[in-house]
Write a structure and sequence with these properties.
By secondary structure, this protein is α+β, with helices and mostly antiparallel strands. It has 2 domains: 86 residues, 2-Layer Sandwich (Alpha-Beta Plaits); 31 residues. Strands 2-3-1-4 form a 4-stranded antiparallel sheet. The mean pLDDT is 81.
Amino acid sequence: MTEHYEITYITTEDADPGVVAAIEAIGGRLSTQRSLGRRQFAYPIKKETAGYYTTARFTMEPSGLAELTKRLNLMAGLLRSLVVSVPATTFTASLEVADIKEAKELGGDETPATAAAATPVEPTTEEAPEDVKAREDKLQAQLDKLLTDDQNEVK
């Protein structure tokens, strides 16, 4: 019986060092993957002060989890990783609204999690991508300066 899992991992590069390939090689099936962006660390990890966070949800046989852990430990570009078991109700609650409607048409029951996800949300005005990028760059520069100042004070 397959179980639902979620992995969050930190890499030195923005590219995937082979985590998804390792999951699929062991017989897992990836359902979602989301990049959380670059973040500064509170302390250096393997002499790195920042890393790229990524989270993914997948299904796999529980027996393959030990093999996945071994493969993750051997990856050079991977700084940290954490695999947790996700209850099936939480796993399905992340489906898109269209998927929920399709499931209802096929005869699925409506649970509170799916009912909340199916409620319409008022559209928000989105900023231009240039504005968002400029704001993120400015905030990242401020964070870099603060962390550098803190590290200099510690020395």
